[in-house]
Amino acid sequence: RSHSLTQLRDLPGKRILIGVGTRDPQASVSDAVSAGRVLHAAGMDVSTRVYDSSASLPAKMLKDINHWLMDGIYESNLVG
Predict the structure, then answer these.
(1) Which of 42, 49, 60, 61 gives 20 to 30 Å between its CA and that of 71?
(2) Looking at the DSSP assignment, which residues form a beta bridge with residue 79?
(3) Nearest CA to 48 among 17, 22, 69?
(4) Residue 15 bridge partners (DSSP)
């Protein structure tokens, strides 16, 4: 039995951010959407962002990551 499969029960409620560039030669938007659907089906809280860029990190992506992280910190303080 795969070690990663034994941890599936830990996934529900976990947050994940998927970011992909429309011109990224290594990952397509459809691949990112498919991965997001699988993770969502496993119970994860999935956020997906699509950027009009290549594989490099655009400023907008870094700003989105910052907001996503801060939202998670804020939410955890409300729950705790």
Answers:
(1) 42
(2) none
(3) 17
(4) 45
